[in-house]
């Protein structure tokens, strides 16, 4: 099995309430977001499109790199690469619906750059390695001793419009179908 395939027996994440405070209409910390390093080394600009889609994911692995022990047993952990590929594949459609896309994890920009290059992602990945956005928004996370207990953001997506949270997807499963879920939501909620 390669990183693009998801095992059939992955545990399904449940809504544990850790995103309940991220409500519609809540002011989004644009100043914190724009301070995050990006893989193209430009400042994040959420005013270039009417909406901004930010999908948060725990971490991506590299080819031929062993998954952390127990990774598949953590609900929602597996599937970061397939999720990014799905956003890549739907990117043009998302833009046509007025949405720009960013991926965000706590991995470093240097690590993320390899992913952008290897997967040919047409959008930036944001590095929250300093945990600024995670802490400001109180995003849910988990840690693994094998990964030096670095906080890994649980999979969620926030749609921002007019600097406010317009929608939150949490939990997300399966990850490879999530970009289509976001696309459908955008179609059902056209920009007025």
Could you characterize the architecture of this molecule?
The chain is of the alpha/beta class and 192 residues long. It has a single domain (30-188), classed as Glutaredoxin (3-Layer(aba) Sandwich), CATH 3.40.30. The chain is built from six helices and seven strands. It has helices spanning 30-34, 80-89, 91-96, 109-119, 132-137, 178-188; strands at residues 51-56, 99-105, 125-127, 141-142, 152-153, 156-161, 164-169. The strands form two sheets. The protein has a five-stranded mixed beta sheet. Strand 2, helix 4 (109-119) and strand 3 form a beta-alpha-beta unit. The protein is globular, with a radius of gyration of 15 Å. The model has no long low-confidence stretch (mean pLDDT 94). This is Peroxiredoxin-5, mitochondrial. Belongs to the peroxiredoxin family. Prx5 subfamily.
Quickly list its features.
alpha/beta; 6 helices; 192 residues; Thioredoxin-like_sf; peroxidase; 26% helix; antioxidant; five-stranded mixed beta sheet; Glutaredoxin; Peroxiredoxin-5, mitochondrial
Short description:
This protein is α/β, with parallel strands linked by helices.
